[in-house]
Amino acid sequence: MLLxxxxxxxxxxxIFFSCNNHNKLFRHIISQKTFFSWKNFWNxxxxxxxxxxxxxxxxxx
Amino acid sequence: MxxxxxxxxxxxxxxKGKATKETATVNCPGEYALVPDDFTGVKPxxxxxxxxxxxxxxxxxxxxxxxxxxxxxxxxxxxxxxxxGDRRKLLSIRVKxxxxxxxxxxxxxxxxxxxxxxxxxxxxxxxxxxxxxANPEDAPKAIFVxxxxxxxxxxxxxxxxxxxxxxxxxxxxxLAKLAKVYLGVSAKQTAKALTEAKDCEVNIFxxxxxxxxxxxxxxxVSPINKGEVVWTLGAEEVIFLGRLMKTGKxxxxxxxxxxxxxxxxxxxxxxxxxxxxxxLLDGTINAEGARIISGNVMTGLKTTAEGFLxxxxxxxxxxxEGDHADEMLGWIMPRFNTFSTHRxxxxxxxxxxxxxxxxxxxxxxxxxxxxxxxxxxxxxxDIYAGYLVKAIIAGDIDRQEALGIYEVAPEDFAIAEFVxxxxxxxxxxxxxxxxxxxxxxx
Lengths: 61, 442
What we know:
The structure holds 2 protein chains of 2 kinds.
Chain A: H1 11-17, H2 22-31, H3 38-41, H4 46-60
Chain B: E1 3-6, E2 20-25, E3 31-34, E4 44-46, E5 53-54, E6 59-63, E7 70-72, E8 77-84, E9 90-97, H1 112-119, E10 126-128, E11 132-133, E12 142-146, H2 157-161, H3 165-175, E13 180-186, H4 192-195, E14 201-206, H5 214-221, E15 230-234, H6 235-247, E16 253-259, E17 267-272, H7 278-281, E18 290-294, E19 301-303, E20 315-320, H8 385-394, H9 397-402, H10 414-419, H11 426-441
Helix pairs in contact in B: 3-6
């Protein structure tokens, strides 16, 4: 089975640094398996969300 | 004057360890293997047994559904092993070379298709749709040959072609007797044997990877509709055909690129299809913690030094495995030496000529699929790659057809798989989708 052995950006680095496209960024954030739903998302502060992502992503790196 | 097709979408990744233009030969004696899995879509039926003495060009196995398609020995010697796995699946047929390289003689005066079927060269032809070994009963609309590979660390075909121009032209002329031949040439290639090739239509492609993929070229030159079939052949395999037409004997000698950051002196080697990699890799790579790939870093298969060169492989890439890559602060550290598609790191400040060392880490886990147009930026075909992948996962055949699955092959998704921040195995998904579709349409 064909497979790309090398990979581009890590999930986390992509989400954390590539803020040039906010639409893309938001969609990546909400796809994380956090307990935030789309409705609740707008109620939480960015900083806290990034903290959660940072913690989750480091497990995968 | 050849038509120039400019492609804007795609991505060039500049990797360290490109092969220098210098060719070495390696010792040939030893074991060779023909692996049925290299020929997608074939149900192998063994026609030799252990201990048989074979010449180069003698059949080792045939396709059960089309017994006229033969898969032949690249060397003369003795069949040393018919390797089978679970449920008696044929894994490989190994031939111990005798070093004499006696080859079977073929009559080159007759029909080209019959000659290709007899000599085993037909097995190298692939068909679209489905990206499988071509069906000899089909009448293809056209035959496409791509004379360049735009993937990182790939072979430079213009260099390989030096001294074999006549064989290449003879191969093209022979193919032209089967169907119209389209030759895809890179804008960087200047060899007259390519740009002024006869008996074919030359199209020049100018753009980043994957412009060298034959699928991309088909999409821009003559897209496939439902019910149509096109065949494709690798550029070096055209030389195999040319040699056969000139001498009447098969000679599966390739000039492959041994490249990658773990290779001590990356250069070209003359080897035969199915050659054991030990002959190539002994002393030439930093073996500890290295990932050996038969084929390209983007589309190749993981193998070991004990493995064999794949039937279609034009390069062997060796990169670090990355098992012990401990980086302070992990991914959050700002850095200059890491490649980033999305400018996550400051390495973009150094321009496109900077070379990067990649290892085999996935750098993350599999995530939900995000429709953010990430694939489309590097997918230079008139196809919505993201939607097509979704349709394949969902098993929606009507939608797959509407989105143009007949034109794609797994390798076309290699760059999309590289940039995908959701870390999906796109090439595996597309291969499985094509296999299911082929079964349904059979």
